[in-house]
Amino acid sequence: MAFDIDMIKAVYAKFPSRIAAARKAVGKPLTLSEKILYSHLWDGDANTAFERGKSYVDFAPDRVAMQDATAQMALLQFMQAGKPTAAVPSTVHCDHLILAKEGAKDDLRNSLTASGEVFNFLESVSNKYGIGFWKPGAGIIHQVVLENYAFPGGMMIGTDSHTVNAGGLGMVAIGVGGADAVDVMAGMPWELKFPKLIGVHLTGKLNGWTAPKDVILKVAGILTVKGGTGAIVEYFGPGAKSMSATGKGTICNMGAEIGATTSTFGYDESMDRYLRATDRADVADLANEIKEHLTGDDEVYANPQQYFDQVIEINLDELEPYINGPFTPDRATPVSKMKEEAEKNGWPMDVEWGLIGSCTNSSYEDLSRASSIAQQAIDKNLKTKSEFGINPGSEQVRYTAERDGLLGIFEDLNATIFTNACGPCIGQWERAGNNTRVNTIVHSFNRNFSKRADGNPNTHAFVTSPEMVAAIAISGNLGFNPLTDTLTNEKGEQVKLDPPVGSELPAKGFAVEDNGYQAPAENGSSVEVVVKPDSKRLQLLEPFAPWDGKNITGAKLLIKAFGKCTTDHISMAGPWLRFRGHLDNISDNCLIGAVNAYNQSTNSVKNQLTGEYGPVPATARQYKAAGVPSIVVGDHNYGEGSSREHAAMEPRHLGVKAVLVKSFARIHETNLKKQGMLGLTFANEADYDKVQEDDTINFLDLVDFAPGKPLMIEFVHADGSKDVIAANHTYNEAQIGWFRAGSALNLIKEESKK
Ligand code: SF4
């Protein structure tokens, strides 16, 4: 089950009646987000108004997408669920496990050898359970989804935080952990807290050097990395209509960087054009028949303050190009201020690499606009001062861009064309001569956390648009402002780069010889899935033990994490990606990037059994072996970043019982719940400071665990004194059931047996 026009017809058939019912229930005009949500209620009853930010609601997503790094764990779990086939159209995309080093051809061949076992596993599971399989080199999951599966008004989930990219085609597309994907593929409802709504009113039109990327870079500066938490961001206004569908995808994509549940745009002509260009005229025709339901009601957009929880106004006529970073995607600096800002902060001015690609910015339009800058460099006798690398988003984009001469332009500037895959964006980059040198890179990706691209904590990575990456790579200087500055060419002349030009869609249409798709077997019941018992890469899962019904007592503090603790800090990517299908092996990276609040070091925590300092995973394993439960304490927005549930499964596997933090990122909090962990927040944030390194921790009333009721936890300090603190939680009755059963999957298995 891959692309299914009948499924889209069935979804659209429900829209008019469900939206009318929802409008009546809510008692006012509806945003697009509400229309999509109410049209996808699991029980189909749109006669109840849900409270934004409060009500837990069951939904019926239309499809599921998984990438190779997270699909391993998702499918290992699905295999336990006891279902013969995926209940909704689902796809697997092999894009994360391909190392960028020499260039596409060699890199792909080497990765097929290095990760062949995993690719074969994913291929055979997909084949068995009716899941579409996109081979290594076919492209980055979100670009492939936008090109093939996304449709206006649809709802999908994906085991990757940038699933939200499909909002570019008017979907509500949400990143989740693998356990959520298992729910939907097992034919069960998928639960989400009804989101709040943030409206972004775009007026004016992008012009000159500004690009869709600058819209989201500015929004990230306004909202910060947690400002979108629990909300859908809905873009509207004339500025929204003036942008391409892939440009809208870029904006939605980086909604993940502000913590938003997802982002979306109303259906418009750009989406119609994109659907037709990607061979889906039938979908465009269907969408046009119900187009009034595929955008927010007029009254909503006329008076947005009345209908959204927050409204942001951006005039695209006045928008400047932005460069965000280093180390966090919300540190937004307009290009005109970057020189001053970089000098003030001592950021390295020499730019060593410019990288274009990632699911955020690897469309045909992106490559065409960036190549227009590259062409100018050639025409004006300029050379790139930085190294230059390109990852096309899909084989279809790559093939078409090569046919149209765009890749040739980059190659003439000595750029390396890497595989149609994530590559440096996820640390799959063997960067020559890099260690711990302080240096700067610029890229068109979405994330720039410390160590993300190349594992070097001293790499200052800056996020910007592809055209700005090209300009900065040519200049080799972080402070270069192409709007005002000139460059000295090979002849010693001063030359200026003109603003980029490009094509929204290829004039001769898209083309591809082999898009890399492999349909599953009609009947996969006889397909054998092989996992070798001695495999280092894959390990069949053992169910987590159910709760024993008693208070957790005598627990030790594994780590009190200080400051930013993203999923990259909890479960690093890069070289660790190879263990994503082997829970025990990947657990050796558990929290090794988190900073210990007591010594400001990473991967060095006090083992209370021995009094000595040691690595986090080894310490956790010793507690587990001794039958001593442990807990993790963290700061704000704990678990920010990716959807990887390894960040929840690893501590669970290593005997951590609870994670107590000032606040959570949404996906990670859900992942903890699904894996049978306690995800708790300090009722009083200042209590974070009361937690001491040698504490012994006792839960006082876990036996009365109930929705809305804080849990009381006693921290017994080394000197015998105690602090009892209140911990809030957001578990509802069903989620408490997951905790009791040991995991959500344990409950599904029980259901399947009935
Ligand atoms: Fe791949 Fe990077 Fe996009 Fe994640 S953010 S899907 S690693 S390109």
Structure, described:
Strands 22-25-26-27-30-29-28 form a seven-stranded mixed beta barrel. Strands 6-5-2-3-4-21 form a six-stranded mixed beta sheet, with helices on both faces. Helix 3 (68-80) packs across helix 7. It contains 26 helices and 30 strands. With 754 residues, it is an alpha/beta fold. It folds into three domains: 5-46 and 54-317, Aconitase, domain 3 (2-Layer Sandwich); 321-495, Aconitase, domain 3 (2-Layer Sandwich), CATH 3.30.499.10; 555-753, Aconitase, domain 4 (Alpha-Beta Barrel), CATH 3.20.19.10. The model has no long low-confidence stretch (mean pLDDT 96). Bound molecules: iron/sulfur cluster.
Topology diagram in text:
Layout: H1 5-26, H2 32-39, E1 56-59, E2 63-67, H3 68-80, E3 90-93, H4 104-114, H5 116-128, E4 132-134, H6 141-148, E5 155-158, E6 172-175, H7 178-185, E7 190-193, E8 196-203, H8 212-223, E9 231-236, H9 238-241, H10 245-253, E10 262-265, H11 269-277, H12 281-289, H13 298-302, H14 304-307, E11 310-315, E12 322-324, E13 332-334, H15 335-345, E14 351-356, H16 364-379, E15 387-390, H17 395-403, H18 406-412, E16 416-417, E17 439-443, E18 459-463, H19 466-475, E19 487-488, E20 494-495, E21 517-518, E22 555-560, H20 567-570, H21 583-586, E23 605-606, E24 613-614, H22 616-625, E25 630-634, H23 646-653, E26 656-661, H24 666-674, E27 678-682, E28 696-699, E29 711-716, E30 722-728, H25 733-741, H26 744-753
Parallel strand pairs: 2-3, 2-5, 3-4, 5-6, 8-9, 8-11, 9-10, 14-15, 14-17, 15-16, 17-18, 22-25, 25-26, 26-27
Antiparallel strand pairs: 1-7, 4-21, 12-13, 19-20, 22-28, 23-24, 27-30, 28-29, 29-30
Helix pairs in contact: 1-2, 1-12, 3-5, 3-7, 8-10, 11-12, 16-18, 16-19, 25-26
The structure holds iron/sulfur cluster.
Iron/sulfur cluster (SF4) binds next to helix 6.
EC number: 4.2.1.3
Domain Aconitase A/isopropylmalate dehydratase small subunit swivel: 557-685
GO molecular function, one term: metal ion binding
